[in-house]
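hiii, so i know i said id send this last week but things got crazy w the move. better late than never?? heres the sequnce for the chain we talked about at the cafe, plus the structure i predicted for it. fair warning i was half asleep when i ran it
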Amino acid sequence: MINKQVTSLVESVSDIFDGATVMIGGFGEAGSPIELIHALIDNGAKNLTVVSNNTGSGHVGLAALIENKQVKKMICSFPRTANSMVFPELYRDGKIELELVPQGTLAERIRAGGAGIPAFFTPTSVNTPLAVGKESRIINGVENVLEYAIKADYSLVKCHKADRYGNLIYHATARNFGPIMCSAANITIVQSKQIVEAGKLNPEEIITPGIFVERVIEITNPAHESELVENQMRYPC
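okay and structure toks below
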């Protein structure tokens, strides 16, 4: 019987190792797997390369992982948002690396990684500092820059509903990078607000098939990043 459900956050991330590349879902607060990120902080893995849309807010979630000096490099589109307090200072001090990627290019690099496409050409970033040192080619009269796919050792993703097979349903725009990150990682770990019995999910509503998921844990009352930031919470406390 296939059963990908785990009951312990500690167990779910226990094999994430020093130097791993980890994709973390979320567009700001929407879809951010706060509990899994905090479990990764407790795990203690260091020198991580993290692929995410942004660098977190306040002193919780991804920002807390960075603040705890566990991340050596960020690959993201928005390194500074309204409540970014940690990353900008560390970056200015030369204590963390940054690979800045336009958001559409980031999404396509991840999708390509999951689809087995090693690289692709795009006109995005042509004649900007982001194109320096990259191969370019004229295609149909338009200059394009070569971008390489991104794959990861692990992906941490949040969904709305799952079953023990690892089939996932997301809630509205909280889906964001989740499906492509699931397909682009060797091991995908998912926190779900609800895990239902096998056969209870409508197949027409499943966004991520279980073949892309290795572990799923039920977090019935997930934290909301904005509330934690507003209450000036810190992790670890």
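btw The mean pLDDT is 96. thought thatd interest u
miss u guys!!
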